[in-house]
Write a structure and sequence with these properties.
Blueprint: E1 4-8, H1 13-22, E2 26-30, H2 44-59, E3 64-74, E4 81-82, H3 85-88, H4 93-102, E5 110-120, E6 126-137, E7 153-155, H5 162-165, H6 167-173, H7 175-195, H8 205-214, H9 217-223, E8 231-239, E9 242-253, E10 259-268, E11 273-282, E12 287-294
Parallel strand pairs: 1-2, 1-3
Antiparallel strand pairs: 3-4, 3-5, 5-6, 6-7, 8-9, 9-10, 10-11, 11-12
Helix pairs in contact: 6-7
Bound molecules: inosine 5'-triphosphate.
Inosine 5'-triphosphate (ITT) is lined by residues 10-12, 15, 39, 68-72, 85-86, 91, 95, 113, 146-150, 174, 176.
């Protein structure tokens, strides 16, 4: 199969290096540009879209363009630095020193990495994938792989920092790896939709969701635990007698005048396990087909 030719709209060479491994079959070149736009979005998604749309303007739709925005959110700092992570302090030792300084004497070390990936195809369709990695901030810097805050980030279930766990671990389990897998799953849906004559986006997606949740028995049952507009809710799932803390996320994409895809994702085990339903539906909420992916879904 031909490789997907893509351009990554980022000045951060570490992201291109990681994404080359995360998107097998893709050849990813960094965007060559001088006048980069400011990051002005209120969310990771808006910033990732901004980068991808800038890349689209520069390349003129000749290749796939990728925009990525990521950051680290520290609970005791009210979610800071968050989308400001790159501007918090120069990347590497200065940013780590500042973060450890702010957390001196603080008991709550909970934190998470977030990554939002947006890809615009040569045909102009926008596809996205989100990934998070939860963990805590270590007392001191350890390890030499990865980049940014990796020497002080210890993922849940691990004792070592991401910089000690290394690039091979990141390729499987990082927030970027999870976002890349979600992007590829969304691409799978896109291929099916394009084959069915769909594509594009529609601001009336909430009406589509409302119709989806009131039609069809499966959608009604699932609707009891998923958010009724695009977004994520905390929920509890059951594996036998065991309670699993989980998230339930709803998304709608590629809405054309007549068809849309509604994506419902349950994630548990700190996001390491997930089950996704892709519903291909008509705008009146009637389900045409369903594709399921991922780990077996536990009971709600
Ligand atoms: P572009 O905007 O040009 O893509 P950037 O480095 O400024 O490059 P962001 O605005 O997305 O990227 O900032 C992300 C920051 O979050 C990054 O500079 C790191 O400090 C941190 N970060 C993101 N992913 C990380 C990872 O996998 N490991 C460590 N730190 C990470």
């Amino acid at each position: 199969m031909d490789r997907v030719k893509a351009v990554l709209c980022s000045r951060n060479r570490n992201k291109a290096r990681e994404l080359e491994h995360l998107l097998p079959g893709w050849s990813i070149d960094p965007l060559e540009a001088t006048d980069w736009p400011e990051e002005t979005g209120a969310t990771y998604l808006e910033n990732a879209q901004g980068k991808a749309r800038f890349g689209r303007d520069v390349t003129g739709g000749t290749v796939h363009v990728l925009g990525e925005d990521s950051g680290i959110e520290v609970a005791a700092l009210g979610g800071r630095p968050g989308i400001e992570s790159a501007r918090y302090a120069p990347e590497g030792a200065p940013a780590i020193e500042k973060l450890l300084g702010e957390l001196e004497g603080v008991g709550d070390r909970d934190a998470r990495y977030v990554c939002e990936l947006v890809c615009i195809t040569p045909a102009g369709e926008e596809v996205r994938g989100t990934g998070t990695l939860t963990g805590r901030i270590a007392a001191e810097s350890r390890g030499s792989e990865g980049f940014g805050y990796d020497p002080v980030f210890v993922p849940d279930g691990e004792e070592r920092t991401v910089a000690e766990l290394g690039d091979a671990w990141k390729a499987e389990s990082s927030h970027r790896a999870r976002a890349a897998r979600a992007l590829l799953a969304a691409f799978g849906a896109l291929v099916l939709l394009v084959a069915a004559g769909c594509g594009g986006s529609d601001p009336t997606s909430n009406r589509v969701l409302a119709a989806f949740f009131t039609h069809g028995p499966t959608a009604r049952v699932l609707g009891e635990r998923f958010p009724h507009q695009a977004g994520t809710l905390k929920c509890v799932l059951h594996d036998g007698d065991k309670e699993l803390q989980a998230t339930c996320a709803t998304d709608v994409s590629l809405v054309k005048p007549t068809r849309a895809v509604v994506t419902l994702t349950e994630a548990w085990n700190h996001g390491a396990s997930a089950h996704t339903w892709f519903f291909f539906i008509k705008r009146d909420g009637t389900v045409e087909s369903v594709v399921q992916e991922g780990a077996a879904a536990p009971k709600p």
